[in-house]
Structures are given as C-alpha cells and as structure tokens.
C-alpha cells in the first residue's frame, strides 16, 4: 500500500533523492528521523498553496524537509532552519547548495527556542514546520502562534508517535506529544486537523 501511495505522489526530484539516500548511507541509525518521502511532497504542496515566503523549520537534521519547502518557495522567500547539530545540518547545506536554494535558507545552529524568541514579534510567518524534540513542541507552538500571520500554517510532525499517544502507559516523548495534541485542540486562535500521514501530521491554521 505504501509503495502504491508513493507511486501516486510526485516522485522525489534528484536533489531530494540524493539527500534521502545519503542520509541512510551516512546515518543509518538516525535516518528514521527524516520526514517521510510523501511529507516532502505535502510540505511543498502547502508552501505553494498558501504562497509561503516566510517559513520556519524547527528541526532540520540533514535538510530533506527544508529542501522540499525551499524548492517550492519563490526565489525571494526565506526559510529559517533551526537545529542544534552542525554535523547533520552540514549535509543539508551541501544539498541546498547543489539544488540552488541555499540563498533561501538561513540555518541557525542554537536551541530552537532561543532562535524563535529572537524573531520579530509581529505576525509575519506564513508556515512553520515542527519536527524537533517532542518535549519542546508546546513551547515552540507558543512562540510561533503569535508570529503567524492570519491564515498562516503550523505543520506538526509525529503527532501519533508510532501510535504510543493512545497507550495509557505512555511516558516520555509520547506523553509530551499527547499533551501537545491536547494543547493544540484547546487553542481557539487556531483551527487544526490531525491527519494519519506518516507518523501523524497536524495541520493548524491561524484564524
Ligand atoms: C526529526 S529530526 C528533523 C528531521 C527533518 N525535518 C527532516 O525531514 O530531515 C529532529 C531534529 O531536531 C533537532 N533538535 C533536537 N533538539 C533541538 C532543539 N532543542 N533545538 C533545535 N533543534 C533540535 C535534532 O538535532 C534533529 O536534527
């Protein structure tokens, strides 16, 4: 079924394929953190749908999701990519340069909360992709929502956490995600839908 889904989605372009393959080759243990192939297409679709020019990514790893969004942005768009790993994001930098989108991506190596708090307070972000440490999601959400323009989107990954969110004995990251999902649902500033895409993706739109 998954092969069928991929076969009926836009195929990865050469730059996407290269970073997906390279990530599995260089970091076989960590490669599972990479957003799924169909999420690259979904993120690009959403960027085009809302004409996003100001994008923020929280959790960049080797750069696949940032690449997918940057390729869909206009040439004068800016994507601020937040991560704490120089090692992983170095592969992203190379992939972005190879794809000709490096000038659209501003990589900030620091805890994402610091980067978000230093951003202008006014509503200017069109789309934010949340895909970093799960315990930080609520804090990231609280920094992002006021900075989103009306109609802007937050896309949150791993909201089902391998199904562990419904486990009564859930601990750690699964528990953090469960608290995040409740937080999102209770936030009257946003309209949110939870989708069973990949490991669960919530799309939330600012009213
Ligand atoms: C799931 S991976 C991101 C995957 C990426 N979106 C992709 O599609 O390839 C999570 C990333 O969050 C980063 N991270 C973890 N804690 C962080 C923090 N406090 N601030 C910023 N980044 C963090 C990790 O270094 C890791 O690269």
Automatic annotation (TrEMBL):
It comes from the Bacteria. GO terms for biological process: methylation. The keyword Disulfide bond does not apply. GO terms for molecular function: methyltransferase activity. Keywords: Methyltransferase, S-adenosyl-L-methionine, Transferase. PANTHER family: CAFFEOYL-COA O-METHYLTRANSFERASE 3-RELATED (PTHR10509:SF14), O-METHYLTRANSFERASE-RELATED (PTHR10509). This is Class I SAM-dependent methyltransferase. It comes from Streptomyces siderophoricus.
């Amino acid at each position: 079924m998954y092969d069928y889904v991929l076969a009926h989605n836009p195929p990865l372009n050469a730059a996407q394929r290269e970073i997906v393959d390279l990530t599995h080759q260089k970091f076989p243990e960590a490669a599972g953190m990479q957003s799924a192939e169909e999420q690259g297409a979904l993120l690009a679709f959403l960027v085009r749908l809302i004409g996003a020019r100001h994008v923020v990514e929280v959790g960049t790893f080797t750069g696949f999701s940032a690449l997918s969004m940057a390729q869909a942005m206009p040439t004068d768009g800016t994507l601020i990519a937040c991560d704490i790993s120089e090692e992983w994001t170095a592969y992203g930098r190379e992939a972005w340069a190879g794809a000709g989108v490096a000038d659209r991506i501003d990589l900030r190596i620091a805890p994402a909360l610091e980067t978000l708090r230093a951003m202008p307070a006014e509503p200017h972000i069109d789309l934010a992709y949340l895909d970093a440490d799960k315990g930080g999601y609520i804090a990231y959400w609280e920094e992002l929502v006021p900075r989103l323009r009306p109609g802007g989107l937050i896309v949150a990954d791993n909201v089902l956490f391998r199904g562990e969110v419904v486990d009564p004995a859930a601990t750690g990251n699964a528990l953090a995600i469960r608290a995040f999902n409740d937080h999102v649902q209770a936030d009257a500033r946003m309209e949110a839908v939870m989708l069973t895409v990949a490991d669960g993706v919530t799309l939330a739109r600012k009213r």
